[in-house]
Amino acid sequence: MQKIVLKARAKINLGLDVTGKREDGYHLVRMVMQSLKLYDRLEMCVIPEPEIRIRANLPFIPTDQTNLIWRAADLLRREFRIEEGISVDLNKRIPVAAGLAGGSADAAAALVGMNRLFHLRLSGEELMNRGVKIGADVPYCIMRGTALSEGIGEKLTELPPLPHCWILVAKPGISVSTKGVYIRLDEQKGWEHPDIDGMVRALEEGSLEGVTERLGNVLELVTVPEYPVIAKIKQTMMEKGAEGALMSGSGPTVYGIFREEAQARIACSAVRKSGAARQIYVTEPFQNRRTDA
Length: 293
Ligand SMILES: C[C@@](CO)(OP(=O)(O)O)[C@H](O)COP(=O)(O)OP(=O)(O)OC[C@H]1O[C@@H](n2ccc(N)nc2=O)[C@H](O)[C@@H]1O
Ligand SMILES: Nc1ncnc2c1ncn2[C@@H]1O[C@H](COP(=O)(O)OP(=O)(O)O)[C@@H](O)[C@H]1O
Hints:
This protein is α+β, with helices and mostly antiparallel strands and 293 residues long. The chain has helices at 68-79, 102-117, 124-131, 138-143, 178-185, 196-205, 208-212, 220-226, 228-239, 261-274, and strands at residues 3-21, 27-47, 52-56, 85-91, 146-150, 155-158, 166-171, 216-217, 244-247, 254-258, 279-283. The protein has ten helices and eleven strands. The strands form two sheets. Strands 1, 2, 3, 4, 5, 6 and 8 form a seven-stranded mixed beta sheet that branches. The chain has a four-stranded antiparallel beta sheet with strand order 9-10-7-11, covered by helices on one side. A hairpin with a 6-residue loop joins strand 9 (244-247) and strand 10. The longest helix is centred in the middle third of the chain and has 16 residues, at 102-117. The two termini are 21 Å apart.
């Protein structure tokens, strides 16, 4: 049986602005997205039984229909009337419910895997159109690299790569609901919008400083007052030499951007010592777009 291995990359939001709301409750966003080298590993193979079988290395990851991998496989199995089943072995390394799009990245990888295993010949764009039915960030997780994300997350524009740097990600041991954070943002009277256009220009100029001085995420307006640990981690990272630090997505993960690996590692030890987070990784931007959907 043919077996394929895929890497599902985590993402961070360098910029996240909310500009409106659709009638179905989804928010209109303007986000600068960046993939990370941090990844989950998926091993996929076709099985004769008409089932979607998922196994995961961590006990708390759902392996039933609520797993986004299951939904991705089911979507293509139904559309293409595939009779065989699929087995997926998930090795999860991306912190879960963290604002790092781990589930969306897994779903994106599963779509790509199904496309290859069953020779469906769908283009990247065709996969992205299906991906958004699973989650707003799935199309971006198919594209990867540095991108501007608009609409609810499905309108994507490729951007020049983030200049090389080191990224420290730290997830505090709290859980926040993405839906809840967006709903609570609606209670805010208005907010200062992050300079997304300026960040795009900085990327075009290849200026890391231009990016780091514009890091901004309006969802922090909801989470930072409620969870002081987020501000605490940001402060520790800044004190240890980060060029900038921000919460990713709906949180609670905080990342810091460093010019040198050694600084990132010192900051990593400081965050660990402070007890503010246990899941902490030093990683780098991942810049390869998916060319082989
Ligand atoms: C906040 C972000 C930023 O990149 O990332 P995460 O924190 O999830 O990583 C995304 O907008 C999350 O995208 P994703 O997690 O794929 O969203 P979905 O599963 O489609 O939606 C979860 C819930 O979030 C809300 N939602 C999501 C996206 C969006 N543009 N507007 C919304 O209001 C909806 O209430 C929805 O029910
Ligand atoms: N493949 C998956 N990996 C992780 N979580 C998943 C997956 N499929 C479904 N989930 C569920 O989705 C929730 C959010 O997961 P995740 O994608 O890691 O969050 P976020 O979008 O905030 O990064 C989890 O609590 C989990 O129950």
